[in-house]
Amino acid sequence: MKPRRQPVPSAGPGAEALVMALPNGRVLGEVMPLLHRIGIEPEPAFADPASRQLRFATSDPGLDLIRVRSFDVATFVAFGAAQLGVAGNDVLMEFDYSEIYAPLDLDIGHCHMAVAASADWAGREDPHSWSHLRVATKYPETARRHFAAHGVQAECIKLNGAIELAPLLGLCRHIVDLVQTGATLKANGLVEIEHIADVSSRFIVNRPALKTRPEDVGSWIERLRAATIGTEHPASATGPRRQATAAARR
Description:
By secondary structure, the protein is an alpha/beta fold.
């Protein structure tokens, strides 16, 4: 479904704060030091596990934060509910939203996507002989495209978690999932048999917001870029902001 553009407040006095969507989990712990490096501190409720609050003010009146599931970050940004976000390129590959522009690799959240199977089965098959596979995965679109590129028809079973259980319980012989250290695969008698893609977290923006509020959105691109290389935000980033806006139009 193509995202329907949401109205984006114009820049200027009294402009509404931009919203940055952050993923819950491991990546949240890695992205917060980057935000701290550029002087962004969320309100106390953000770190309170008992809080039911969902949107959080920050030390910058022009920025609010929300915490959502990793897959939902892309949806909030694509549909314009959040103008900024942090998402893994695994999520971006799966949804392929045209309304999302990913100008910056934050160099965090490193892992990779792979095909895995039980150790016993993997030792008896040759991936080059595959013609049809049944695969359990959180990434059915990415998996289908990967196997189709190799001439393999993939029947993908969508699961949202505990993917490693699928081969153990006879649901299928293969899975496609993210691998960080390989410890979970090993603990469940699985081995990696094919690499699909390296994964890291990207800073993403809503394209209409970048066109409507180029100075505001472009400033955050430059601030996060500076944070990833350990430098302070430059006093003037008009040139890079214009370049980012031009790239988003393409």
